[in-house]
Write a structure and sequence with these properties.
Elements (H helix, E strand, L loop, with lengths): L24 E9 L2 E8 L4 E5 L5 E14 L2 E6 L3 E4 L5 E4 L4 E8 L5
Antiparallel strand pairs: 1-2, 2-8, 3-7, 4-5, 4-6, 4-7, 4-8
């Protein structure tokens, strides 16, 4: 996992800053602050993220491929360009029936 933020004040193409790695989930940090973070992930076919809950809402945008995002046991199939908000405290997991890349944005402020 790469915890280095991307270089500030430098133009980049989000889908190109992370590569697919066979049989892996790759995570790249775009911004990480105490009030939230933005990460980009690549997930190879057959891989995924185990079920978890977060105390914060999480915005997910698929930027390449197709992801299955299960929230409260309801499956959502997102394709390139589609987004969903995972509500705070909702059990969720993400599966790759085919490989995909996504942006995850978590805003931690406003929950005080």
């Amino acid at each position: 996992m790469d915890n280095q933020e991307v270089e500030k004040s430098k133009v980049f193409i989000t889908v190109e800053i992370i590569e697919y790695v066979p049989n892996s989930v790759v995570i790249k940090t775009i911004l990480k602050k105490s009030t939230g973070n933005i990460t980009v992930m690549s997930v190879d076919s057959g891989e995924g993220l185990t079920e978890k809950t977060s105390p914060f809402d999480t915005f997910v945008q698929v930027i390449d491929g197709q992801a299955e995002i299960v929230i409260n046991k309801i499956s959502n199939l997102l394709k390139t360009g589609q987004s969903i908000v995972i509500p705070a405290h909702a059990p969720n997991y993400i599966t790759a029936n085919e490989r995909f890349k996504m942006i995850l944005t978590v805003i931690k402020s406003g929950y005080e």
